Amino acid sequence: DLGDRLMLSIDKGTQVIVNGSVFFKEGHSVTAAKIELEQVNSDGSTKKLGSGHTSSNGEFTFRLKPGTAKLRVTAKFNGAVASKEIEVAIYRLAITLDLSNTEK
């Protein structure tokens, strides 16, 4: 019995992780830009999946359930708006080295 000493972390292989950054046109990071994430359906309709704000270094992250989807990420700051659409899919990969564990 491990009681409350058992801690399991989330396997990143079971998630879609969208990481991004927002920049001003001069290349500097945008802090506190509003980020909206939507799924774009085949008929063009959208479904809101989440929102948040960029960090102090202009970065954002969303974690989603696995699956194939078309996503739209929109950044808004001080009246400026920009969007990008991305296709996501789950790729699972295993690589075996021609090396034994005892040969490390």
How would you summarize the topology of this molecule?
Elements (H helix, E strand, L loop, with lengths): L15 E6 L12 E7 L5 E8 L5 E6 L4 E9 L2 E9 L16
Antiparallel strand pairs: 1-4, 2-3, 2-5, 5-6
Question: Widest sheet: strand order?
Answer: 3-2-5-6
Instruction: Provide the residue-averaged pLDDT.
Output: 85
In the predicted model, the low-confidence regions spanning at least 5 consecutive residues are: none
Q: Main sheet? A: 4 strands, antiparallel
Strand runs, count: 6
| Helix percentage | under 10%
Question: What would your notes on this structure say?
Answer:
The chain is mainly beta. 0% of the residues lie in helices and 43% in strands. The protein has no helices and 6 strands. The chain is extended.
How would you summarize what this structure contains?
The protein has 104 residues and is mostly beta strands. The chain has strands at residues 16-21, 34-40, 46-53, 59-64, 69-77, 80-88. 0% of the residues lie in helices and 43% in strands.
Index terms:
four-stranded antiparallel sheet; single chain; mainly beta; 0% helix; extended; two-stranded antiparallel sheet; 6 strands; 43% strand; 104 residues
